[in-house]
Amino acid sequence: MDAFFAAIEERDQASLRGLPIAVGADPRAGRGRGVVSTANYKAREYGIQSAMPISRAWRLSVAAKKQGKPEVVFLPVDMEKYAQASARVMSILRRFAPVVEQASIDEAYVDLSFAGSFTNAQQVCRNLKAAIQAEEHLTASVGIGPNKLVAKIASGAHKPDGLTVVTEEEAEEFLAALPVRAIPGIGPKTDAALARMGIGLVRDLKRLSRDELRAMLGKRGLDLYEKIRGRDESPVQEAYEVKSIGEQETFAQDTRDPNFMCERLTAMCEHIFRRLSTEGFTHFRTIVLTVRFADFETTSRSHTLAEHTNALSALQFEAMKLLMPFLDSRENPHHKLIRLLGVRVEKLQTTADA
């Protein structure tokens, strides 16, 4: 899906259409401390990207305004609404193909082998894109390839509202011209290390032998050797398992105020509990608390119940129990201020599983 969270907000609020939008933390006039979750394409023209600190996004908006451009509209995350839209989109996809693997809230793999040819697969994708547009008033960008790897990369080639076809014969050449960061699994550190070797494009990386990549990156190097040649044997699997549902909040000011933190943790638990049913779950068994201190040290603690439960009171009680040691010397011996709290539930269960 194209700029999914921002696109939903633009769809639902006519006054926002055509404006640059960033969904995420409150920027607090440049003093905000969270990040951007999603930026629409107008905001991306200003240099605003997902996971960017919200304070930097604010400064980019201010700079754009000084140039006579519209200010960015900053909106809070409404995960319940986005999850509901995601469920409807996934339902549309399942009308067009027998096997759909949901990869995230806004991304899925669709097995089109039943189509018999790339030409037929392209028509299927035109139809499903049209259905999403007609029913949800949202655009999707689709990549068609001989495997999941190539299809995923192709889906980003012509955003928004793109449809890119890469056949098996074209796959290696298609990848060769891309920056190495386009290959899943190559992060900033690996990218920087390769850049120091004069390797910026996939075609440059292909000059390294299998043994050289293994020496550099271990087992990951062997996997990368196959990926940069467009090879991927992973199947499309219908059973997508949501492993957890969670929330987190970066505070406007670092704090050790127990009343404030208990209030925010209670609110997060309530939101998670509502999302459980929205995303098709009824029970959970594990509660995980994440604490980030002012110096960015981050710690997680968890508790697994003896059996699954569907009680909000149990979630709130266990989350509070996990938090309490961070308010004294047990988990916070240096009495550091806390920057962020997060809570999530795992070992999820549906009524059918119970």
Could you list some keywords that capture this structure?
354 residues, alpha+beta, MutS, DNA mismatch repair protein, domain I, Alpha-Beta Plaits, DNA polymerase, domain 1, 4 domains, four-stranded antiparallel β-sheet, three-stranded mixed β-sheet, 13 helices, 11 strands, 40% helix, 19% strand, globular
Overall number of structural domains: 4
CATH class of the largest domain: Alpha Beta
The shape, in one word, is globular
Strand content: 15-25%
Biggest sheet, in brief?
A: 4 strands, antiparallel
The CATH topology of the largest domain: Dna Ligase, domain 1
CATH superfamily of the largest domain: DNA polymerase, Y-family, little finger domain
Summing up helix and strand content along with how strands pair, one would put the structural category as alpha+beta
* CATH architectural group of the largest domain: 2-Layer Sandwich
List segments where confidence is low: pLDDT < 50 over at least 5 consecutive residues: none
Share of helix, binned: 25-40%
Whole-Å distance between the termini? 33 Å
Lateral strand order in the biggest sheet = 8-11-9-10
H-E order:
HEEHHEHEEHEHEHHHHHEHEEHE
Discrete helix count:
13
Count the E strands.
11
